[in-house]
Design a protein that fits this description.
This protein is mainly α and 318 residues long. The chain has helices at 3-35, 39-51, 53-64, 68-93, 100-120, 128-159, 168-202, 207-218, 221-232, 236-261, 270-294, 299-317; strands spanning 125-127, 265-267. Helix 5 packs antiparallel against helix 6. The model has no long low-confidence stretch (mean pLDDT 79).
Length: 318
């Protein structure tokens, strides 16, 4: 393909994810303001479900095509990238205070999902029936979000008893903006991965490095775009909620679905059990322990998570 067409398609992907992130976050903030649901909860539910679609699609497609290592590596690697890279950047830029009531159980469920996955995969196989325990964690997570959303709406009604009316036209426009935003992010991410990889090859970058960076980070681009947009708009709660929610979904839903699709026994490679999952669990602990005990994130956490992720990438390349 002509190099200029590659460059143009790469830039188009960049434009789509930038504008898509803007529309997507504006739509999510509007939903939070209109319904009275806390921003953290909106980030942990609607936003995280939307941004994990690429991981789910890539992993299930990988299993169906016989690329099991890609499917497993994508799901686990996305959690590692979400924490080490994306949450690291977010915490470094905005070391926010967290609501213990909204954060604690979700953080514990994320760590539990990573620890349980590590235990279940020790034998080199993820059987479907034992993996259903991960679905239980996912169900508890969704149930807790529903309870928190109702509590937030009730609190909002008490503080603002006058009912806020929204025109049908405005509601349709904001919801369309939300849907259009995530669509633009997904399409833009695909263009960025494909043509960014092609550009890197043209520039002489080794394919091993491209695989670790472009593909591993690629499916986490929706979370990255949402986080960077949230930082720009001072919406730290939305960003943290999105990352925690996306990780819970990745850890407790994607691999059990892949196990079911693969016939009930998903093969897990030795790298996943000896390196990927332990690093993922370590980053989960680094990310949630300080806010669990102190009620806030710290900049040193961001530095440590970024350093751990950089070390992990170096280990993969070498």
């Amino acid at each position: 393909m002509n190099v200029w067409i590659t460059v143009l398609l790469f830039l188009l992907g960049l434009l789509l994810i930038v504008k898509g992130g803007d529309w997507f976050l504006d739509g999510a903030v509007w939903i939070a303001e209109t319904t009275g649901v806390p921003r953290f909860i909106i980030g942990a539910t609607i936003v995280s479900l939307a941004t994990t679609l690429p991981e789910l699609t890539v992993s299930v497609t990988g299993v169906l095509q016989g690329e099991v290592d890609l499917a497993v590596g994508n799901a686990v690697g996305s959690v590692t990238a979400n924490l080490g890279l994306i949450l690291g950047i977010s915490v470094l830029c905005i070391p926010s205070v967290v609501s213990k009531k909204q954060f604690h159980l979700k953080a514990i469920l994320m760590v539990s999902g990573a620890a349980l996955l590590l235990v279940l995969c020790r034998g080199g196989v993820l059987p479907f029936l034992p993996s259903l325990v991960l679905f239980v964690i996912f169900a508890v997570y969704l149930g807790n979000n529903i309870v928190d959303a109702r509590a937030g709406m009730a609190e909002s009604r008490e503080e603002h008893p006058e009912r806020r009316t929204v025109s049908r036209r405005k509601m349709c426009m904001k919801l369309a903006m939300f849907a259009l935003g995530i669509t633009a992010i997904v399409i833009g991410s695909r263009l960025l991965i494909d043509y960014g990889s092609e550009l890197a090859l043209l520039l002489g970058v080794p394919s091993a490095i491209i695989g670790v960076t472009m593909v591993a980070i690629g499916t986490s681009l929706p979370e990255l775009v949402t986080t960077l947009t949230a930082i720009a708009k001072k919406e730290a709660s939305m960003s943290v909620g999105n990352i925690i929610g996306a990780n819970v979904i990745d850890l407790t839903m994607i691999l059990p679905v892949c196990s079911a699709v693969s016939g009930g026994r998903l093969t897990i490679g030795p790298q996943t059990t000896t390196l990927d999952l332990p690093v993922c669990l370590l980053l989960c602990c680094v990310a949630v322990l300080p806010p669990l005990f102190k009620g806030k994130f710290y900049r040193w956490q961001g530095v440590l998570m970024l350093a751990l992720y950089a070390g992990y990438v170096v280990l993969l390349v070498t």
